[in-house]
Amino acid sequence: RSPAKYPLYPFGSVVDADD
């Protein structure tokens, strides 16, 4: 879950649920 890696997805879990 890294929001910084995915600015488009503040939730993070949407794109990176692993971290």
Care to give the gist of this entry?
It contains no helices and no strands.
Description:
The model has no long low-confidence stretch (mean pLDDT about 60). This protein is about 0% helix and about 0% strand. It is mostly loops. It is globular. The protein contains no helices and no strands.
Q: What is the β-strand count?
A: 0
Beta-strand content: under 5%
The averaged pLDDT comes out at: 58
**Major beta sheet summary:** none
Number of helices: 0
Helix content: under 10%
Estimated structural class: little secondary structure
- Outline, from the CA principal axes? globular
**Measured distance between first and last alpha carbons:** 4 Å
Radius of gyration, whole Å: 6 Å
Low-pLDDT residue intervals, each spanning 5 or more residues: none
List keywords for this structure.
19 residues; little secondary structure; 0% helix
In terms of topology, how is this protein built?
Layout: no helix or strand
